[in-house]
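Suppose you are handed a protein chain with no further information: no name, no annotation, nothing but its sequence. What can you learn? This example shows the usual starting point.
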Amino acid sequence: MAKHSKSQRILTHLQVWTALDRLAERAGFSPSGLAKRAGLDPTTFNKSKRITGDGRERWPSTESVSKALAATNSSIETFVQLIGDGARGSQSVPLLGFAQAGAGGHFDDSGFPTGKGWDEAALPSASDEHAYALEISGDSMKPTYRDGDVIVVSPGTPIRRGDRVVVKTTGGEVMVKELKRRTAKLLELQSVNPAHADRTLDANEVEWIARIVWVSQ
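A reasonable first move is to predict its three-dimensional structure. Written in structure tokens, the prediction is:
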């Protein structure tokens, strides 16, 4: 009779926590930022919480994972994809310098990338086939985004209050802000840089708005 080797644990402590880190990164958050967005204690996903005082592994609760998925509009299938060796699968998405985004010819009326002048970037797979990347230039978005950071924008992803978004006005201005409030008539935006003023735009001033779903920092 053949001997069976000792079965290996299919899911490891490291894999689950790494998947949470990647989930946060894709959504543009730190682990503590993701926890706050999910309505949890800000330290819930911190590295210091992953091992108990006596050295035992502490696993995230099912409830905390569920809330993190809801906060990032992600499915359990997405979380599974972030686990394991295959989690860093990538795809090529159109890449454009942020300073160029205000010029005409790069987007259609819905905010989807179009026309010439785009480069390509290999980044984590995005569920939106129209996703694209913008490379930040300058320091106007510090401390949230720095010069050289690449943000992935998804025109097809639903937007909720508190999301970080890219907005293009009918006047050709392109900005990164946090959505405070959106009505049929107004768009209220909070600046990601405390040194810059918040903005309120009339709906007819907004050409398109799209959510930031990932950032490479």
